């Protein structure tokens, strides 16, 4: 199995809602067998012993309760899907499927069900699994506690601002971790792109196509060293590649590596993931903000709250020192792998363009965007600032088109971190008028 196949299998496992509950189901049966075997030693105290009718009634009630609770959790899941697709972003669902607490709750319920059901068949008039009945009662207590924690978590975390915070933190972690690994192996900023390794250029094409979810830079570099060639990945993580599209250019090689070996280190899927694609997290944040600005929802305050997380994300991006291309070398310093990257302008345009286009009619959004951009001007190093000034100019022009009245235009151009939360006051830094 190639690395790409293992990656896709891991993604499926993380997003699956049935694998962990199935493990709980199997463990419940095995634990029931163990409890029955321990009961045969007759070492339990008298207070843990039950009559056959009592044990049967308790276990039957537990089996029915677990089925009802499973249905309740599934109902909550349906409601989450409806809210996510209606008021948030369908892209968020891929992250929600991975929630570990939800899988733990489902596994506990299925495990308690199978454990209690397996114990029922061992009850006889003169033989009762006393330890198992007590353990089943304890499992019910744990299940109810987890259910309360689950309800508390999703009651609070289903708010758009909470989801924005979760998605933003995930994106920042992936950005810092992934870019630090690539930057550590890349030449200094400003170094020229290495020339081709010589010889013919071979084009590696995707077989089935799809969205590039991730690739393995270390193994691609090792593969280039083995064949004495230079690999140039022509697509970004998150790009859609049609069937037969060029993914990698192989410069030189003696002989050139087989196409299947190269594509086996690049994972394709039906949609983007966040493992190596921090821009996907920013995409989800922008989608939530744009959905809040739609006429059907008309909730600019939610968009302002999401902009808070977008601003934090942009500050992290601005301090990272991203480039649009990275070169990885072998131990001798010979360039072996060239990968495409997103630079500061890519992230900035993704963060503010659509929100500006859809939210200019809201004074609240205009003021919050202005405060966001001026905050970037005052906090970031000189390199990213020209792109920020360009976005400020675009915002100014959009406000002028939307608000012909001078008084309303002046108010819309006043920076305010709360959207409309205070009278005009000096901002964190000057911007073009």
TrEMBL record:
Region described as Disordered: 399-433
InterPro entries registered for this protein in UniProt: DUF2254_membrane
Q: Keywords assigned by UniProt?
A: Membrane, Transmembrane, Transmembrane helix
**Top-rank taxon, per record:** Bacteria
List all Low complexity biased stretches: 415-424
Compositionally skewed regions (Basic and acidic residues) per UniProt? 399-408
Q: Which residues cross the membrane?
A: 15-36, 56-81, 101-120, 132-151
Q: What is this protein called?
A: DUF2254 domain-containing protein
Per the UniProt record, the source organism is Streptomyces yangpuensis
Origin organism lineage:
Bacteria, Bacillati, Actinomycetota, Actinomycetes, Kitasatosporales
